[in-house]
Amino acid sequence: MRRRTVTAGSLEEFLEATAPAAEAAAAEEPQAPAAARPAPAQDHGLRTEFEFELPRGYVDEAGTLHRHGAMRLATARDELRPQIDLRVKENPAYLSVVLLGQVITRLGTITDVHAGIVERMYATDVAFLQDFYRRVNSEGHTRAAVTCPHCEGAFEVDLSGGRLGES
Length: 167
Hints:
Blueprint: H1 8-17, H2 21-28, E1 49-59, E2 65-72, H3 76-80, H4 86-90, H5 95-103, E3 104-107, H6 115-119, H7 123-139, E4 143-147, E5 154-158
Antiparallel strand pairs: 1-2, 2-3, 4-5
């Protein structure tokens, strides 16, 4: 069986070829003069980026600990792109590593977060990020309902930052 190698260039070509017709037509239209262009979209209160704090933190090559970061909402393209990644085809468990590498926009002072960085994170942090991804993309928020093990009182915590017990 012969395998097809997908490179970054052919990946973009593949994604463009499979784009909806309306998107392709919009790409072919000539650009209108600046005066005729519609005004930039107004902020409608949609939150697209969420701050988080890792339970353990990522330690880079220089020994710097990075705990605070940001994750943006995933697009359909973000979810489709890993499906054609050879690493994911060979090991389906690698899907979440590739996906997290695409949607994490910042980790401490690191702004170029990629799958290689996610690979080197502690398992606790990767599990936290997987749950965080699910919450912001499925539920639209970072709150979780919890119950106190001592008094059995129910309350909400925000997973995006701060340590448990802090307000």
